[in-house]
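Please fill in the sequence for the structure shown.

STRUCTURE ENCODING:
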């Protein structure tokens, strides 16, 4: 019996339902003994069934559910999807609602039928209904929808909806996430693109559970397919990936000339235009790196692979993972780095253009940590007090002189 079948069996067991609904106060001894005899897969199925019932119990459904409005049903259905998407990363979040509702059959039957009719017969919930349409620009966080139109994401954005092909979208100023409902049309997947300007970061949670954090000045293309043989995405810029495991659908990132293939792992990729190479740094797991000639190397945790533009050799070295991934925690770490090499990072970090007057300044070396919370003036004052470097700000340009 599979894990899902074992979970469904528990969700159709009235004694188990009563135990969870009573906050584990009824039939306690029986279920504690039952749990102690489970194997590893059984424990996973057991915990999953508990979590599902707890999420359902949190919904605002009562004996008057049949009288609730379609709007109320929509809100509760979305709450369920949102809660379930947080249960477990690594598998597609598909909820088989009808089999989970047996513990409150009279209430849930009405709810499930109403929800199904309301959401999936003619609903037209799309990006057009929820976000402001704009022209392409390099100052806003943008999402390009399947219709190839751009929509703006601001700090105040806070929207959630079900699309007409059964995908739950939850979007705010920090993250957009996609979750498959039980009515997803697996053959009607959509392509999207996220554009992040200088001075900002943005996070995504893909439909398979993979989490991606995009650094400033990055573009990320992806889709919400659930049945393809591979999970293919494209990156320009820099991103940190925490890939959901799926041995049957490898995850592939195309970044400039480099192709990175994984099954489930954490890694950083960078191909910023100011660099002469594309690099990937492995934090956990295992990845395979390919060059344009389809030659490959397997990378181990703590190592970085570099592929220089228009070259075929993949260079692998030990990496300082903490320094490379510091941007994901809102920091930049310098270790004897000269100012000339540092400026492209500062341009993105503060969304300004630095200009040096006097070649000697290029060779100044810096060691330390810069936090994103510190504003531009704080950094410039640090340069002035510690290195004697003067600065002048004109419009969006910072001029450094000695």
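FILLED IN BY: designer on duty
SEQUENCE:
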């Amino acid at each position: 019996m599979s894990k899902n079948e074992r979970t469904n069996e528990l969700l159709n067991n009235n004694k188990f339902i009563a135990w969870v609904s009573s906050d584990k106060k009824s039939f306690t001894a029986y279920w504690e003994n039952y749990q102690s005899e489970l194997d590893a897969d059984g424990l996973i199925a057991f915990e999953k069934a508990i979590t599902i019932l707890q999420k359902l119990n949190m919904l605002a459904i009562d004996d008057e559910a049949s009288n609730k409005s379609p709007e109320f049903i929509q809100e509760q259905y979305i709450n369920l999807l949102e809660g379930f998407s947080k249960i477990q990363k690594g598998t597609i979040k598909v909820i088989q609602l009808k089999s989970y509702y047996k513990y409150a059959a009279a209430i849930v039957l009405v709810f499930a039928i109403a929800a199904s009719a309301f959401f999936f017969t003619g609903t037209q919930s799309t990006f057009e209904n929820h976000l402001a349409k704009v022209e392409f620009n390099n100052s806003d966080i943008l999402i390009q929808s399947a219709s190839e139109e751009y929509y703006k994401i601001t700090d105040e954005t806070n929207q959630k909806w079900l699309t007409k092909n059964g995908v739950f979208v939850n979007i705010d100023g920090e993250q957009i996430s996609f979750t498959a409902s039980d009515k997803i049309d697996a053959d009607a997947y959509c392509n999207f693109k996220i554009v992040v300007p200088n001075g900002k970061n943005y996070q995504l949670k893909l439909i398979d559970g993979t989490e991606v954090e995009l650094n400033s000045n990055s573009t990320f293309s992806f889709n919400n397919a659930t049945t393809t043989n591979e999970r293919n995405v494209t990156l320009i810029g820099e991103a940190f990936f925490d890939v959901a495991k799926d041995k049957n659908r490898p995850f592939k990132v195309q970044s400039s000339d480099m192709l990175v293939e994984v099954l489930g792992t954490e890694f950083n990729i960078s191909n910023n235009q100011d660099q002469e190479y594309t690099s990937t740094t492995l934090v956990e797991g295992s990845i395979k790196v390919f060059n344009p000639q389809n030659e490959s190397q397997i990378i181990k945790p703590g190592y970085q692979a570099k592929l220089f533009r228009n070259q075929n050799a993949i260079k692998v070295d030990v990496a300082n993972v903490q320094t490379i991934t510091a941007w994901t925690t809102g920091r930049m770490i310098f270790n004897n780095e000269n100012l000339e090499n540092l400026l492209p990072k500062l341009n993105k970090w503060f969304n300004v253009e630095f200009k040096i007057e006097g070649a000697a300044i290029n060779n100044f070396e810096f060691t330390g940590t810069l936090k994103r919370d510190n504003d531009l003036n704080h950094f410039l004052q640090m340069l002035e007090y510690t290195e004697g470097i003067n600065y002048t700000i004109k419009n969006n340009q910072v001029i450094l002189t000695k």
